[in-house]
C-alpha cells in the first residue's frame, strides 16, 4: 500500500527565521592588475580577475565585460549568458535590454533568449515607475513598449518620453507640438501645445494638479482635463506649490494664487536650472 504524502509549508521559527527568509547574497568584487574578480560571501574566489569593469548585480545577474564584449554572470560566477553584446542594461523583472551592435538592440531573458527582437537603436529597462513600460528609440524617434514587445506609445516622438503618475509627456515629430498620453496609449491632452514645463527642482511635471504649458510664446496653467485655469499671459513657466506660484509678466515678477490674484515681488527669484 503506497503512503500518500502532502507537501507541507516550511516553518521558520526562532533563530531559523532569518536564514529561512534571506535571499542569496551577491558576490563581492575585488580588483587585481586592473581587472575584477569575484568572491563569494565567505571570501572564496569564485571568478579570477578577468572582468574589465566592476560588475553590479541586479536580480541575481551581473553584466560583465570581458575582451570588450558583454555577457551576464549569476551569483555563482557562472557566465550564463555569453559575451556577445554591447550596451548591456540591468535585469528588471527578468528582462534586460542589450545591443548586438549600436543599432541592433532588443531584450533577452535570464537564459539569454530573445524576447523582444533586436530592431531598435536604443532600449531602456522596464520600469514600475513607467507602469511596466520601457523607452525605445529608432531613427531618432522614441516610443514605449510593454514586455511583449508591443508598442504602447507609438514610435513617432522626437524626444525621450517623460512619465509621471501614469501620464507620458511627448513631443510629436510631425506637428512639433507637445501633448500627454497615458501609459495605456490613450491621448489625454491633444498635441496642440508649444511646450510643457518640468519642475527640475521638485522633479515634477504635475504641480498641485496643474500643468504649466505654452501657446504662441506665452505660458499659462491647465488642469489634467485640459481646462485653462490661468490664461496664457506669462513670460515664463511657473510651478504651483501649496496653492501659490511665482510667475513673470511684462518683465515683472509676481506671486499668484490659483485664481490669478497677483502680489508683486520686490526681489528677483532664483532662476530655474
TrEMBL record:
The keyword Signal applies. This is WG repeat-containing protein. The lineage of its organism: Bacteria, Pseudomonadati, Pseudomonadota, Gammaproteobacteria, Pseudomonadales. It comes from the Bacteria. It comes from Pseudomonas vranovensis. It holds the Pfam family WG_beta_rep. Keywords: Signal. PANTHER family: DUF3298 DOMAIN-CONTAINING PROTEIN (PTHR37841:SF1), GLR2918 PROTEIN (PTHR37841). Residues 1-18 form the signal peptide.
Amino acid at each position: 500500500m503506497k503512503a500518500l504524502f502532502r507537501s507541507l509549508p516550511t516553518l521558520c521559527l526562532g533563530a531559523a527565521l532569518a536564514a529561512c527568509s534571506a535571499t542569496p547574497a551577491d558576490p563581492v568584487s575585488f580588483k587585481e592588475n586592473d581587472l575584477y574578480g569575484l568572491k563569494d560571501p565567505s571570501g572564496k574566489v569564485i571568478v579570477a580577475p578577468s572582468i574589465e569593469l566592476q560588475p553590479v548585480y541586479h536580480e541575481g545577474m551581473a553584466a560583465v565585460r570581458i575582451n570588450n564584449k558583454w555577457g551576464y554572470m549569476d551569483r555563482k560566477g557562472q557566465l550564463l549568458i555569453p559575451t556577445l553584446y554591447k550596451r548591456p542594461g540591468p535585469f528588471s523583472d527578468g528582462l534586460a535590454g542589450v545591443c548586438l551592435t549600436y543599432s541592433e538592440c532588443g531584450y533577452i531573458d535570464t537564459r539569454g533568449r530573445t524576447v523582444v527582437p533586436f530592431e531598435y537603436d536604443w532600449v531602456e529597462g522596464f520600469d514600475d515607475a513607467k507602469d511596466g513600460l520601457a523607452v525605445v528609440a529608432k531613427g531618432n524617434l522614441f516610443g514605449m513598449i510593454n514586455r511583449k514587445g508591443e508598442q504602447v506609445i507609438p514610435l513617432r516622438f522626437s524626444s525621450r518620453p517623460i512619465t509621471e503618475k501614469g501620464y507620458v509627456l511627448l513631443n510629436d515629430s510631425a506637428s512639433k507640438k507637445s501633448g500627454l498620453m497615458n501609459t495605456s496609449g490613450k491621448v489625454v491632452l491633444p498635441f496642440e501645445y508649444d511646450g510643457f514645463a518640468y519642475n527640475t527642482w521638485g522633479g515634477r511635471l504635475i504641480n498641485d494638479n496643474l500643468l504649466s504649458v505654452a501657446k504662441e510664446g506665452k505660458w499659462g496653467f491647465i488642469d489634467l482635463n485640459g481646462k485653462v485655469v490661468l490664461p496664457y499671459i506669462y513670460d515664463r513657466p511657473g510651478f504651483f506649490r501649496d496653492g501659490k506660484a511665482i510667475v513673470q509678466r511684462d518683465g515683472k515678477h509676481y506671486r499668484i494664487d490659483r485664481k490669478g490674484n497677483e502680489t508683486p515681488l520686490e526681489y528677483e527669484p532664483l532662476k530655474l536650472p
